[in-house]
Amino acid sequence: MEQNTIVAALLGLLEGLTEFIPVSSTGHVLLAGHFLGFDSPGRAFEVLIQFGAILAILIVYAGRLWHIFSSAPHDARSRRFILSVLLAFLPAVVIGVMAHDIIKTVLFETPILIASMLILGGVVLLFVDRMAKNPRYHAAEDIPIGRAVGIGLIQCLAMIPGVSRSGATITGALLLGADKRSAAEFSFFLSMPTMLGAFVYDLYKNRDILDAAAAGNIVIGFICAFLSALVVARVLLNYVSVHGYAVFAWWRIIVGGLALLALTAGW
User: Fold this and answer.
1) Which residues does residue 178 pair with via DSSP β-bridges, in sequence order?
2) Distance (Å, rounded) from C-alpha 262 to C-alpha 141?
3) How confident is the model at residue 210 (pLDDT cuts 50, 70, 90)?
């Protein structure tokens, strides 16, 4: 098995393990790929393998999704929730399309920025996790439309690799009154249209530069991301409900710090 194939599998596992926890899966995959010398044409691999994680969350939440959509015709709460997620998704569409080239050619190629954002995001998450008291919303479906849009706007900060899409949405939800479990759940639901949209758009943008080798690596990364995300999605909610997000904040700070040291040393 070629080295690039082995690295693709490892990066896929890393993507799935980190996609739904607030540590920045893209930041981890980009930094790991940088240090391992992984070649990714157009940085498509790092975006497209995220669809494996989305497939995992769709399977885990299949029953909940069926209930929401099947009850929507006669249930105002379900209709409001669907609208909330769609409206929260729109800011990412606009900014993602407008800034796509800058994100992929500049931000994705700046490891020092990624490591710095890991540290900064960890500090912010640690602070918000400690201050999040007396939440008003205890279910993702109960988050009002206006606050959902606010979470969607905050999600756009994750266009900077290292910030973390789940980290931004969870932090935003906590600040806007959600409890720790419902913040993670809303992040799960918002990830579905957001990452599906990113997958489709990035595949379209890179359709001319993906050769057979790149496509093969993406398939391997996709499968590994799916399998590892399936495990994380099943255990995360129970963990954060009891323990909160502090462990993920410290993980970000440690990984970002080590990455900065390595980059400063010229690795």
Assistant:
1) 137
2) 43
3) confident
User: Distance between CA 233 and CA 246 in Å, rounded?
Assistant: 18
Residue position matching structure tokens 């979470």: 151
Residues 245-254, mean pLDDT to the nearest whole number: 95
Decide if pLDDT at 68 tops 70: yes
Element containing residue 233 per DSSP (H, E): helix 212-243
Three-class SS of 109-175: HCHHHHHHHHHHHHHHHHHHHHHCCCCCECCHHHCCHHHHHHHHHHHHHHHCCCCCHHHHHHHHHHH
Instruction: Copy the structure tokens of residue 21.
Output: 């926890």
Whole-number mean pLDDT of the chain?
Answer: 92
Within 8 A by CB and 6+ apart from 238, the residues are none
Per the rule left: phi > 0, alpha: psi between -120 and 50, beta: everything else, 170 is: alpha
Residues 128, 233: contact at Cβ < 8 Å? Answer: no
Q: Which of 60, 14, 58, 57 is nearest to 34 (CA)?
A: 14
DSSP 20: T
Torsion angle of C-alpha atoms 233, 238, 241, 245, degrees rounded to 10: -50
Would you give the DSSP letter of residue 178? B
Q: How many domains does the chain have?
A: 1
Amino acid at 106: V
DSSP 80-120: HHHHHHHHHHHHHHHHHHHHHHHHHHTGGG-HHHHHHHHHH
Q: Which domain holds residue 72?
A: 3-264
